[in-house]
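# nightly structure sweep
# worker-07 picked up a monomer target from the shared queue
# config: single-sequence mode, recycle default, output format = structure tokens
# input follows
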Amino acid sequence: MSNRTLKLKLWQEDPKCHWCGRITIPTNVKHIKGQPDPLMATIDHVISRFSPMRWVRAKPDEKRKVLACVECNQRRQQEETAKLSYEELVQRGQGFCLNPRGKPRLSDTYDSLDQVLDKLREHGIIIT
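# output follows
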């Protein structure tokens, strides 16, 4: 399912932001020029992009993506990033493909967190 289709499906189920509860604005714009409306609907991952758990396969009824307003989505990203040291950001970026110029070490999901951490260790990436 494409992100646009998923966003519309989530919006039809419940148009409110998962985090703040405000009604979001559905859009079907591929590329936004300028500042987006703070209430524009986006897809947000429940599990942080910095968490190794993001690479563990979701359980059948586990919801990993939710509808969020731009404001909450961006705020969460900034808060998550601010919690990590520069060294940890670089290390995690090498394993989780945060840097578009980097070479990802993980591209598939795994059955357990231990498998994810083992795969990262194979590449010299230690997550504490």
